[in-house]
Amino acid sequence: MADLTFDALHHADRLRLVNPRGDVGVITLWSPWEAARRKLEEVDPAILDPTASRVAAIGNLYGDGMYALLCNLLHNPQVRHLIALGTQAGPSTTDDLEVFFADGLEDDAILGRPVRRIPGTGRVFPADAAFDDRRLREHLSFHHLGRLSAPGLPDALRALLRDLPRADPATLPPRVRIELDADAGDRRRQPSDVLAHQVVRRRPLDVWEELVVRTLRFGSEVGVGDGTRLELLNVKAVVAEPADDAPAALEHFGLRAEDLRAYQRRILDPSPPDGVAYTYGHRLRGHTIDTLAEATALLAREPTSRRAYISLWDDAIDLHAGPGAATPCLTTIWLRIAEDGRLTLTATYRAHNLLTAWVQNVYGLMAVQCHVGDALGLAPGPITVVSHALGINPADSRFALARDLESRWLRDDDRDRAAGKSSMREDPHGYFVVSIDDAAGELVAEHRYEGLLVKTYRARRAETIMHEVAADMAVSLVSHALWLGGELRRHEARL
Questions:
Q1: Pairing of β 55-59 and β 15-17
Q2: Mind listing the pLDDT tens digit for each residue in 98-125?
Q3: 12-171 adopts what CATH topology?
Q4: Which 3 state secondary structure label does DSSP give 282?
Q5: Structural element, H or E, at residue 102
Q6: Strands across the sheet containing 442-449
Q7: pTM for this predicted structure
Q8: Per-domain residue ranges for the chain?
């Protein structure tokens, strides 16, 4: 086969080409390009010389880009070596790649849909027969060199680029072209106000599932820098009883409890960022002051204070960041002691990736809440998350799974995952008892809350009571409104 030049099948706009005929790919994980460029020039300017370098392309790797990376490598078989360096948000990225190159993939299923999983990890790929993991493992080497500041990185990188074996172009296998599923398919967007969505459920997974369904059904298709998103704006999500979901429930959606616990540790780590623009732990506890310690002290002095408000957005830095630069998605946290004595937390996110980030972000907020609450001796109350731009990427490897989840959403009930049972959702506005007053010839609807009578509605026609209940805003759930309307019509027919 003739010499091949590097052809980025996916995300070409995110890659930096060096020598298109090179046989080495470099991934800088979460480290931004400028930091990586400075380090590579310091190690050896020849690394970035397009006429002499062995490096074909350099790119970041965060979010859910691993599948696209590997598809690019199948399409460019002349790249025989992959080198990872830089900072990562956790150990899972390089750990998962190391497991992949050692053990390949295993067949699995999520929501009844076949997927392929890196064994022992939460990393899943589409079940595409064209994705030849065996070929990648046999023809590609992987080397992880650590952070940009690691003392041994310069010598290790120079040695690799000098000593890694070169392949005979005549022995290269053919290109494999694998398309990412970036099509929303036959999705028909249902009408709604994209600014008016709210979800209130007990646990993080309960909230997340409904958010996925709402975004797929009602999200508008918008163009962003790297493609298309299905997007809802200013979504309010309330986790009424924040606590860990059962590990089996997390695994059902391809999530791992140990990954979430690692994220919880990182969001409380004040260490300064090394080679990345920011970390949430540093913005919270080391950027200027330890904001969690200050908020704790404030609430200890003034339990009714509304000033325990933390901003992670630094105008002097983040407003001047260039196109594509990393800036915090989590922008504010507000802590307040509720009237029942529990500690509540409200967070806002500038942009929110629903399929890959939302659940771990909420687990991080739970860690922040417990950190402050434990210091104050307070139990956790509801967590409210406001996502200014809540999006789903149709090119995400989990998009097909999200569509399966949406197709299975047939009831609005609450679910007890441990018991495997469903129950009608309780309206926080209370409930109704409908009866007939035969002597007066009227329908009677008693609005009650925890057994106490709130108001009695009486009329000869169901429609009259429906209008009065709507005017009083006495019902907040669609399912409750449908049930009440049915009960009133049924009793009206008897009357």
A1: antiparallel
A2: 999 999 999 988 766 788 999 988 888 8
A3: Rossmann fold (3.40.50)
A4: helix
A5: helix 92-103
A6: 431-437, 442-449, 452-459
A7: 0.77
A8: 12-171, 198-411, 431-494
